[in-house]
Amino acid sequence: MGCFHSKTPLLQSLHDPPSPHKPDPGNGDDVDEVCQVPVFKEYALNELRRATNEFSTHYIVSESGDKAPNVVYRGKLDNNRLVAVKRFSKLSWPDAQQFLAEAAGVGKVRHKRLVNLIGSCAEGDERLLVADYMPNDTLSKHLFHWDKQPLPWEMRLRIAYHVAQALDHCSVENRKIYHDLNAYRILFDEDGDPHLSSFGLMKNSRDGKSYSTNLAYTPPEFLRTGRVIPESVIYSYGTILLDLLSGKHIPPSHALDLIRGKNSLFLMDSSLEGQYASDDATKLVELASKCLQFEARERPDIKFLLTAVAPLQHQKEVSSHVLMGLTKTTAVLPTMLSPLGKACARMDLTAVHDILLKTGYKDEEGAENELSFQEWTQQVQDILNTKKFGDIAFRDKDFKNAIEYYSKLVAMMSVPSATVYARRAFSYLINDQAELALRDAMQAQVCIPDWPTAFYLQALALSKLGMETDAQDMLNDGAAFEAKRPISWRG
């Protein structure tokens, strides 16, 4: 899953992140041909730490759950695939094997209307799920907290249909219980198409007894017995229909009172005026009423839901992102990255450090802005010594001292060195100072405008800051300059 409205100011101003990496069998990815997503696997904890920059707070996209606390991070795997990583507390799943078995079972359920689960991890106290990344936020965001335009009526009907399709498939796959269906569980991909989070198929903690929504929206049988049943999912689907009709949270009991009193017009979102046919609205209100019956046996089944909402789809030919007014961006990964570019793309700091060490200062050979030693003076000797101590600290991974020496060096030099800026940028990255790293990488580019290393380090800093689209642009630019350079300059 992944709700994509970040808490951090840096991320709130971003454009949509790039489309998730498409699996490539020739690149080592195993692919489920039905859904074109990787086959479910168990990930090593180190892989997911690397993907989320050590579970950086900059990568958090949502936090929830008092009874079963969890955090969802945006992550990027080594193959550049963007994913959502859901991190539970150990208390939620004390038994690691039970967690892995449950995750593997859910991972087998694949459908184009689901946010597919692609992996899990249980090492030590960690319990992690890995799923498709959905870059265009949740239904809650578009329905209740919209900025530019309310969610159009036709899009609301499409959501009702797609969610019904997802639930029907889960039922066919003998996953008839979906826990806590709500507007946060419905997410939008890069095309604006809605998907139902697969996380709701997990039993969660307490063997399925945990229910996190307000009690006013909880199925009556759960309040009586503390358990959910397949008919509970139908009840929750009814609350989703109420959300779509009204554009706000209306307790089911109040909605039913309005419907029984023939006042269903008061249910409708006033921002939808003139967008819908009254017959379609009436049908959706009646369907919601059927779903919200107090007695579970009086509610319709999922097949009935599909039959009811399918005829209401009147604009099938219009893309979801068009209906929603979203700008669709598709990033193309560069095909010719150098080893340094690849290391920056996968945020492999160890590899980046090794390559920068091996490269040394040779990238500045022949450049006008190399270290200037016109006169042999004490000042020049001080510059040489400062550079030497900085390079030793950088080599020995003493990055705080490297920053100190390189900062002195920058202040002493009459003509700046791109490599010094690059090495200090990397040292800032290691010390979680991504903004300073970005500034230095940009200075390195000023020194040598066509130096791929400067672009790659900017890409790495931008990724650390969560600015994926800009990072991808920098990788592309670096790859373009790489292709133009003589073979002897490439590293």
Throw out a few tags for this protein.
alpha+beta, three-stranded mixed β-sheet, disordered N terminus, disordered C terminus
Descriptive report:
- α12 packs parallel to α18 (452-464) and α18 (452-464) runs antiparallel to α19.
- It is elongated and about 95 Å long.
- Residues 2-29, 205-210, 366-376 and 487-491 have low confidence and may be disordered.
- The chain has helices at 9-12, 45-51, 96-107, 139-144, 153-172, 220-225, 230-246, 252-260, 278-291, 302-309, 320-324, 339-345, 349-359, 378-395, 399-412, 418-430, 434-447, 452-464, 468-484, and strands at 31-32, 37-38, 41-42, 60-64, 70-76, 82-88, 114-115, 117-123, 126-132, 186-188, 194-197.
- It starts with 8 loop residues before the first helix and ends in a 7-residue tail after the last helix.
- With 491 residues, the chain is an alpha+beta fold.
- It is 44% helix and 10% strand.
Proportion of residues in extended strands:
5-15%
The mean pLDDT is 82
The profile of the biggest β sheet is: 6 strands, mixed
> Got a strand count?
11
DSSP helix fraction = 40-55%
Unreliable stretches covering 5 or more consecutive residues: 2-29, 205-210, 366-376, 487-491
What structural class do you assign from the helix and strand content?
A: alpha+beta
The span between the termini is 37 Å
Order of helices and strands: HEEEHEEEHEEEHHEEHHHHHHHHHHHHHH
Report Rg: 27 Å
Total number of helices? 19
